[in-house]
Amino acid sequence: MTFLPSNSGCNGFQFTFETYLDSSSRNIEADSDISSSGRDIYDSVSLSESISKYEEQFGRTYHSYRAGSYHYPNDPTETERLDDQYEIAKELMEGRNYFAPFSPKNSPRKVLDIGTGTGTWAIDMGDEFPEAEIIGTDLSPVQPDLVPPNVRFFVEDSSEEWIYAPNHFDYIHTRYTLGCWKDMKSQIIQRAFAHLKPGGWLECQELNTLPVCDDGSMTDDYKLLQWARDMDDASRAADRQLVIGDEIKRWLEEVGFVDVQQIVLKLPVGGWAKEPRLKHLGMLWQRNLSGGLSGLSVGLLHRFGGKTTEQVEVDLVGVRNSMFDRNVHAYMKIHVVWGRKPDGIS
Length: 346
Fold this sequence. Notes:
By secondary structure, this protein is of the alpha/beta class. It has helices spanning 16-21, 49-52, 76-92, 120-128, 184-195, 223-237, 248-255, 276-304, 309-322; strands spanning 55-57, 60-62, 110-114, 133-138, 151-155, 169-175, 196-213, 258-268, 330-340. The chain has a seven-stranded mixed beta sheet. It starts with 15 loop residues before the first helix and ends in a 6-residue tail after the last strand. The model is unreliable at 1-20 and 35-46 (pLDDT under 50).
């Protein structure tokens, strides 16, 4: 089974879902009924005791391999939240895991999932494409042991030089890797270009944490907005990029990808949307984000934001409360960008 004919671009694919799903130019209608109260080439670091014995701080655990390079926890509380986050993202994308033009008749053969987290995306892809070889990499070995036979996980730091051969993968994927990279363009996108086969695809599905609003109901003193700005400032101090969604399409094009496509999805914060599906997703996202605020915030804002852990937790009370205000029609944007390495480029 071939990946793509050597002379094929996107002309043979009908991106009909783009018009349907892309919400960047559409406002979300608020529900007016809401109350105002409202080592072959896959050799990697072995799973030694030092890697599986996590760092403990602030009552949470953090990765020990390349300790301190990723500022969010990896304990069961966080991994359960990540699994729930995966389901929210999949429902927002109408059950899709990818937008690159794959299908049972056009299956990728070698897939790399960077920052795989709990590995749910890689496992789903392994089930969907049983002939494909799926590799998931992460700093933390938090993936399950029981996985499809074509799925493997490795502890790796993808910000360093990759061990894989050039022109090796058909498809490379990232999702919600905000805060992972010093420079996503050079560390991930350029390397993906080098390690994809000609005709292979890179797809980045990245969340912008800065809430936005279409109708002016969100003001500068909105606590969730203030939190997001504080997190962005602390991430910059930590030399990590947090708000990257608006840049990804340009980065892919600058590196050399062609047929670059983008859709922007809107994920409401809370249950203020009128459309039942978006209302449901907004409530799920509110619960997910609210439950993860402490883990996401304490390490970063304490180390690089100049706050004590007590100050962070006190501030988060106001942030959580702001997310229940249904008079504020805030949402977060998810940028889904995919592009193809040109044929004939090694």
